[in-house]
TrEMBL record:
InterPro entries reported for this sequence: ATPase_NBD (IPR043129), GppA/Ppx_hydrolase (IPR050273), Ppx_GppA_C (IPR048950), Ppx_GppA_N (IPR003695)
Domain spans labelled Ppx/GppA phosphatase N-terminal: 19-304
Family: Belongs to the GppA/Ppx family.
Species the sequence originates in: Savagea faecisuis
PANTHER family in the cross-refs: EXOPOLYPHOSPHATASE (PTHR30005), RETROGRADE REGULATION PROTEIN 2 (PTHR30005:SF0)
Protein name: Exopolyphosphatase
Gene3D superfamilies the UniProt entry points to: 3.30.420.40, Exopolyphosphatase. Domain 2 (3.30.420.150), Hypothetical protein af1432 (1.10.3210.10)
CDD domains: ASKHA_NBD_HpPPX-GppA-like (cd24052)
Domain of life: Bacteria
SUPFAM superfamilies in UniProt: Actin-like ATPase domain (SSF53067), HD-domain/PDEase-like (SSF109604)
Residues of the Ppx/GppA phosphatase C-terminal domain: 316-456
Amino acid sequence: MSHKISIIDIGSNTIRLVIYEKRQDRYSYECIENIKETARLRSRFDKEGNLSEEGINILVSTLHEFMKIVDHYGADECVAVATASLRLAENCDDVLARVKAETNIEIRLLSDYEEAYYGYFAVHHSISLQEAVTIDIGGGSTEITYFKDGKMKNYHSFHFGALSLKMEYISDEMLTAKEQKRMKQFLAEQFASLDWLQNLQVPVIAIGGSARNIGRVYQQIVDYPLDELHHYEMTVKQLRKVEEVISEQSLSSLQKMDVIDKERADTLQPAIATFIALCETVGTSTWIISNRGLRDGLLYEMQGKTEEQSDELIEESLYELKSRFYIGNQQEDDLRRLALQLFHEVNHLRPVFDSSDERLLRLATPIFNLGKKADAETSNMTFFLVSHYTLLGLSQKERIAIALIASFKNRRLFNQYAEPFSPWFTEEELHRYAALGAILKVAQTLDRTKTSHVKMIIISEPKESQWEAKIIYECSIMAEKYHFNRQKKHLEKQFNVVISPNFVEKL
């Protein structure tokens, strides 16, 4: 059995339908349909500020088509929300009544606070930062929030967005130098009006399609090795590079770029100028993309999530990964126990690890080679899946580190997997991650038969570069002995030692 939720998000630029499904064996909802219509309602206001007849007809016809899709999927719940697209319309009440009469859809009109809050809420439950500024730039409004210690402290909704800025400042297809100067001055003045925003010196987290398009442009420029945008971090200098690249193109050439949504090409210049202006006001060089936004915030609320961010955010994502791709019946508690014992014993003799390394080992343990013995195929599959799967709460660098540890088979394959990401890590970091992978691989040999017979590992160094591994067990561990002796070489190579096992049966 499954449960499906559909959310219709009526924005100033686009109207989007997303359908989520939750199966009984899953913790969270998975997106199974995502479709949008570039309605550009913000550009269909008349001089009196009313949504025009043309705009209303586009809205109604789009909703009719969306409901056919909702019915096809058999969604159990359907929620339709509107933001500044309708909130700013003088005839808002009339539009809502007409939509209800013609489609039987009751649109929930979000206040500026709710629009800002749901964006923050989505970020809060998908990125593990305790303090940041969020920006969600739509077509007709821009929501800013500031949160600290996991709580939203301030918010503001500006009555401008990427589409309305384009309409106001771009007379032709692309900004002229004079238009750009005027627009940037306007943006600086708007952000300067918020005292609580000044010089916070915290990261800026950007939500929405414009941010994703800008991120994809820069990833193409630098030949980024992942096709992933959530928690993708850029500097203001890199944002300016994208701004320069975009300004050098014609609109038609931008629309032809694979990494840019054709319907967003003409609003990217206002969007990126807004992001840069906000970073300058906040006094930060760190700009992060969130792939989770208003719709996800609504979904999280419907799931019963609260502002109390779960400490298990990352574990929940790992559970979802396993529920989709896990192979085998590995006893995670025993493997984690043995891996951490081995970690602390090794670190006592060779203190090269810190608490962050222990955390990475804990996270990598439940997905080590997806539950099967380490061979070339499962190792390759594990690295590919973990490195390309969005793990909420982890930076992309942390995700690759976990992928390297969880897929460890030998140092040759480790280096092969690490090579495309070598600029991300120091040699010291890669050495530690390979050592963590070796610890995990060797620890798994001591629970080969999933019987929990190995109780304790104690390592001493009676002579320089010679370790004695005292392994206390009960009952028979013939398989564990055999595989430990075969695989201990990975630890020996990492630490340039010879390991002599001493298996001691617990009476």
